[in-house]
Amino acid sequence: MQPLALPHGVDDPPSLLLWRLDDLIPLILMLVIGMLTDRLAVFLVLGVMLSRLYGRFRDSRPDGFALHWTGPGASAAFRPPATASSPSARSAAAYAS
């Protein structure tokens, strides 16, 4: 049996133009804080530095490592939906009725 070649980018996070979305979050957050505090240039430079530091940190860790920081509630978007046969779906259905 021949091994099946899968593309490497199938499980990649969403991207905006050339950047991954998780790289842009620190930059956008610092941009908003800079606009609110009237120190746009300072916080923009800080955002670029934080994005680069996060990129280096992310590249030196396994895929999905940052999801562990967010806890079980925030990473629920990355789990498959519960089916009717799962215990959590049954208990949710019983709670709703």
Detail the topology: elements first, then pairings.
Layout lengths: L14 E2 L2 E2 H17 L2 H20 L7 H8 L12 H10 L1
Antiparallel strand pairs: 1-2
Give a quick set of tags describing it.
2 strands; elongated; mainly alpha; two-stranded antiparallel sheet; 97 residues; single chain
Question: Would you kindly provide a brief summary of this structure?
Answer:
By secondary structure, the chain is mainly alpha-helical. It is built from four helices and two strands, in the order E-E-H-H-H-H.
Mean pLDDT: 76
Summarize the biggest pleated sheet.
Answer: 2 strands, antiparallel
* SS content category: mainly alpha
* Broad shape: elongated
With strands numbered from the N-terminus, the spatial order across the biggest sheet is 1-2
Q: How many extended strands?
A: 2
* Oligomeric state of the chains present here: single chain
- Helix segment tally: 4
The helical percent reads 55-70%
Indicate the proportion of strand residues.
under 5%
Termini Cα gap: 51 Å
Radius of gyration: 19 Å
Low-confidence stretches: none
The helix/strand order is: EEHHHH
